[in-house]
Amino acid sequence: MDIVGPALLAFCAAVLGSLGGLGGAILLVPLLVVTGMAPTDAAPLGLIMVAASSVAAGPRQLVERSVNHRLGVTIELLASAGAVVGAIVSSALSDTFLTYLLASVAAVASIAGAGRSGLRNLPDPDCERSDIGERVGTISGAYVLSDDEIVPYRPRNLRTGLGFMALAGFVAGSAGASGGFIKTPAMTELMKVPTRVAASTTTFTVGITASAALVIYAIQGRVDVETGSLVVSTSLLGGVVGAAVQSKLPPAVTRRVLSALLFVIAVLLVVRA
Prior knowledge:
By secondary structure, the protein is mainly α.
């Protein structure tokens, strides 16, 4: 497979990954394998794409103040640790085991997201523009739903959520799938974080998770510099496009798109197995 194919796939995956906070690698890695690339070669490219698209999406999300950095740093402590462990033990895990693990988690996340309708966090007329963003000293915050609607939120079930973040990191390190498809649903359905905030915060953190695992992959000599450099270029562009589209979509639409993508991913992984 030439280097142009992975680069084009990386662009598409970066757009969709930034749109729903998936990280994109959960799409890219299976597609690369289906098109003939070995899983051990596809995994590093998936994480390279995730790191690049995360950086590209950052500026717009910072301006919108939709990223909860305190929450992101908190969950990333366990996610990065899980990524390092996953990368170290990846050679001992079979492709079949990893494939069914990814498919199972994707299917559960898809059902959880599709089964809820409406907004869990409602606009508060008492909130002002100065309330947008994170609240000092806490992991709570508020985000803009529309021009005249500001929605406050407070993450819940933090301990259980952190357990899922460690799992997300392990999956990222072992399968090169970034773990974003676990992080975003865990934040929205378990921690009760608004979809837009969860997607933006996940996009911010998956780059850190990917970088932690890439260090191990580089030490193992599994990083293809030539193909990886082209993937970085297209992923940066895809991340910018995905972040722009995400900011325009209503939360309910984003959630439905995310659920549909997760279902397709689950089916694709089972067929691949």
